[in-house]
């Protein structure tokens, strides 16, 4: 019987598959962490520029993403780039204006889930 601390022997092929799977998982986790940080930064931008609470900022980003069919992290990247002087893509800018107005009217609960 082996314990969890003892190394089990595996055929080279199985070990290679396991290593490849773990490397892919690590890559996906790194991308998720980076995407999460970008979204958090964009929420901060919305909170600072439009004076809305962070929860409303996330709802705004989500609404823009859904209405433009653009991934959430891409919308966040666009918003961060805008703060650095890049123009917002037109559909993102229009959807963002609408969503921020809804947030200011207190209709955050009306935003899509």
- Helix fraction by DSSP (H/I, runs of at least 4): over 70%
The pLDDT mean sits at 85
Shape: elongated
**Which structural class is indicated by helix and strand composition?**
mainly alpha
Unreliable sequence segments = 1-5, 109-113
**Number of distinct helices:** 4
Major sheet summary line:
none
Commentary on this structure:
- Helix 1 packs across helix 2 (54-68), helix 2 (54-68) packs across helix 3 and helix 2 (54-68) crosses helix 4.
- The chain has 113 residues and is mainly alpha-helical.
- It has helices at residues 12-50, 54-68, 72-83, 90-104.
- The chain starts with 11 loop residues before the first helix and ends in a 9-residue tail after the last helix.
- 72% of the residues lie in helices and 0% in strands.
- It contains four helices and no strands.
- The relative contact order is 0.11.
How would you summarize the topology of this molecule?
Elements: H1 12-50, H2 54-68, H3 72-83, H4 90-104
Overview in brief:
The protein has four helices and no strands.
Task: Quickly list its features.
113 residues, mainly alpha, disordered N terminus
């Amino acid at each position: 019987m082996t314990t969890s601390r003892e190394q089990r022997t595996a055929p080279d092929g199985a070990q290679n598959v396991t290593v490849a799977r773990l490397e892919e998982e690590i890559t996906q986790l790194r991308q998720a962490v980076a995407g999460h940080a970008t979204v958090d930064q964009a929420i901060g931008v919305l909170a600072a520029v439009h004076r809305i609470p962070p929860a409303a900022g996330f709802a705004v980003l989500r609404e823009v993403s859904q209405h433009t069919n653009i991934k959430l992290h891409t919308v966040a990247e666009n918003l961060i780039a805008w703060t650095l002087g890049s123009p917002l893509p037109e559909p993102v800018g229009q959807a963002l204006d609408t969503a921020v107005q809804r947030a200011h009217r207190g209709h955050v609960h009306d935003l899509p889930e």
